[in-house]
Amino acid sequence: MNIYELIKKKRDGGELSKKEIDYMINGFIKKDIPDYQMAAFLMAVFYKGMTARECVDLTMTMVDSGDRVDLSGISGFKVDKHSTGGVGDTTTLVLAPLVAASGGIVAKMTGRELGHTGGTVDKLESIPGMKVELPKEEFMDIVNRIHVSLIAQTGTLAPADKHIYALRNVTATVDSIPLIAGSIMSKKLAAGSDGIVLDVKTGVGAFMQKYEDALELARTMVDIGEGAGKRVVALITSMEQPLGYAIGNAIEVKEAIDTLSGSGPQDLVDLILELGSNMLLISGVCGSREDARKRIRENIDNKKGLAKLGELIKAQGGNPDVIGNTGLLPQPKKIIEIKAPAGGYVESIDALEVGLSSKVLGAGRKTKDEPIDLSIGIFLKKKVGDEVRKGEPLALFHSDGDSSKVEAAKEKFLNAYRIGPKKISPPRFFYARVSKDGVEELK
Amino acid sequence: MNIYELIKKKRDGGELSKKEIDYMINGFIKKDIPDYQMAAFLMAVFYKGMTARECVDLTMTMVDSGDRVDLSGISGFKVDKHSTGGVGDTTTLVLAPLVAASGGIVAKMTGRELGHTGGTVDKLESIPGMKVELPKEEFMDIVNRIHVSLIAQTGTLAPADKHIYALRNVTATVDSIPLIAGSIMSKKLAAGSDGIVLDVKTGVGAFMQKYEDALELARTMVDIGEGAGKRVVALITSMEQPLGYAIGNAIEVKEAIDTLSGSGPQDLVDLILELGSNMLLISGVCGSREDARKRIRENIDNKKGLAKLGELIKAQGGNPDVIGNTGLLPQPKKIIEIKAPAGGYVESIDALEVGLSSKVLGAGRKTKDEPIDLSIGIFLKKKVGDEVRKGEPLALFHSDGDSSKVEAAKEKFLNAYRIGPKKISPPRFFYARVSKDGVEELK
């Protein structure tokens, strides 16, 4: 096999075989194929795309480049959930116990992410005593017992993706749908669950700004997952503004507890019902989405989801009292009101900028080993469509008291808000549901 | 400026400024911009092309990366000629003295090329005593005196092109018309002449197999050259079979002498008339192509072109008697007839394969410093359209007597010939003439 010929084949719109994809990706990992040839290949893929078959093969080659989480010691259908980037995305903390309380099984290993805020693992660590680094046997034992566990990922999932991503990131080949889909799905498939519900964000704050692109990404990921023998459903949802009100770590745990207690923000609750019902459906727990939705709704109302979160915290060494008293969570040194510079209606909130301002405030990390002050975060008081008077608080900054960080974050934060004179309705939230059976519009 | 943004701009079909192109190319040469980013950029250019303005700017940036030959010490309009790859392309040896004899000025520094056969410099070295490495002052002095000199290139012309070409060659980004045009024109513009006649080959044996591609390449090169203030004309000619009969070094010098003596192969003579008349026209020596053509024709018939070759040889230290006695050229150890394996009509001759077989026979070099046996070459006895009987010679191999080379070359050579039962007419030779005034079809 000849790397030059493979670049040329893709350049001219040809389809590579599984063998050819293996040769390319494995050669790149072993440094037999130099960066520059891979870069040219990636740019050819950017223009010429990949067939459904190539996407599955690329993904599986990346899965095979690293460890796979073996969940076979856990009986039953394990279901996972993934969101393509979100700001203030508290969903996992709510969904995992709620789905488990409703009959599903969630065995999730999750990374310590960089980015706007900490990852799920960081959020969990704001619960006093909570351990997120457990031996695999203990993790599996907990799931077998209470049907849910969330721990920090060990092993290296899909390292090929990491190497390829690093190259894409400097060669303007990130925004290629087959490559994005392969990147996401290789890690999800390596994570070992039997089914995956994907939340594909679209809108100003999302990676896929256009609905058509989000739809194509969703379709491609569903095809890859189903092609690899998993059950996969994707929802296309809005990222026109941050989800819920909380952005940070402890502050998002509090919002998750509130949501499981029945007093969550409407958009977060709606998303939980949609994602959760699909997770139960593909798990085979419920026969229809309507039944599954009803069950999730009941388990919020009767607080079984909240109780399951308590069980989860206890199983992982944390203080379960937190579910009744969120004052046990890390508290910020200082809460600062960020006031509206003008009155009117909130026209838009740039979710990405809000996420970045929470990072500037201190809620995210720059390097993998940096500690985070888990108490820091932003609590929104106004969302799109809300009326606001000049001087009324737009948000509360949960701060460590460092005023230079506050000033920088405030500037970024205020830039994210657009306030205008006309009343507008909140943006559309759900767009579509994509499964192997096709695309269904959601309202 | 940010390299990532420049790749993205081109990826999305944008036009780069001169400053941006400079930043990119110079950064690459200085190794500030890594190979992989350049490779992604080149692939984006492959798909998105470059505007006429970008092509000029890219070319001039590459010219500025190295030395320029300063021909200002030579008075008058200096005219150059370039062929986009040819097999058995004896034209320079015929054209240079003929144009000089007709009133033009040819001051040509030429490289020692790798490839199927030696370059022009190697061919000249088969003339006893002929020096091709002369001090620049002597070169200019000769041109001022007799209006022609051909020597080996000194200095480094357009080194950026060399680096970029090396990367294109391993990333499947060679066949991009803006990049090919920039590569050729950067070297021609650095070579210092005031006008250039380009011979763009098309057909099975050529780089541009399709006429449309050859036309686009011709147009792009003319635009670049005129944009850089030079007078440029391009002819699109056939490369369906080797030009003339001789492929090699001494053997091509002999063919050149025969052509200047009035007994050249028809296709070579036709090409000489077409290229030469355009060289005289852009030099301002003649007012029309018809007049120029007539003058070239006369200077073949009256042997003034041949006499000029004698002057050139003498001026560069060679033995001018060679023009009257080609027996003074290096003679092969052995001449071997290559017999037709079947009878019929020659349907096609793959020029590239014939070139490669002459290399296998020993007429070319693999590394820049390797000596060549200048006596080796192939003399064709049959061309497309000719009738041939089984066992009749297709060609004569001028060999050093190494039978293993002969066997290998013979196999390759016979593969290049297709002989069929039906009489066919020789292929079309001239397609079009491209100048700043437009495209004119030639018959």
- Structural category of chain A is alpha+beta
Q: What is the CATH architecture annotation of the largest domain in chain A?
A: 3-Layer(aba) Sandwich
Q: Tell me the distance between the termini of chain A.
A: 50 Å
Strand order of the largest sheet of chain A: 1-4-5-13-14
CATH class category name of the largest domain in chain A: Alpha Beta
What's the mean pLDDT score of chain A?
93
User: How many strands, which pairing sense, and closed or not: the largest β-sheet of chain A?
Assistant: 5 strands, mixed
How much strand content do the residues of chain A show? 15-25%
Q: What percentage of residues of chain A falls in helices of 4 or more residues?
A: 40-55%
Strand tally of chain A, please? 14
Low-confidence stretches of chain A: none
N-to-C order of helices and strands of chain A: HHHHEHEHHEHHEHEEHHHHEEHEEEHEEE
Q: Summed up, what is this model?
A:
2 copies of one chain form a homodimer. In chain A, about 45% of the residues lie in helices and about 15% in strands.
Would you give an account of this structure?
Two copies of one chain form a homodimer. In chain A, helix 2 runs parallel beside helix 4, helix 4 (52-64) packs across helix 10 and helix 15 (351-361) runs antiparallel to helix 16 (403-416). With 443 residues, chain A is of the alpha+beta class. In chain A, the strands form four sheets. In chain A, strands 1-4-5-13-14 form a five-stranded mixed beta sheet, with helices on both faces. A four-stranded antiparallel beta sheet of chain A has the order 6-9-11-7, sandwiched between helices. In chain A, strand 4 (195-202), helix 10 (211-227) and strand 5 form a beta-alpha-beta unit. The model of chain A has no long low-confidence stretch (mean pLDDT 93). Chain A is 44% helix and 16% strand. Chain A folds into three domains: 3-49, Transferase, Pyrimidine Nucleoside Phosphorylase, Chain A, domain 3 (Up-down Bundle), CATH 1.20.970.10; 79-325, 3-Layer(aba) Sandwich (Pyrimidine Nucleoside Phosphorylase, Chain A, domain 2); 331-420, Aldehyde Oxidoreductase, domain 3, CATH 3.90.1170. The interface between A and B is medium-sized, with 21 and 21 residues.
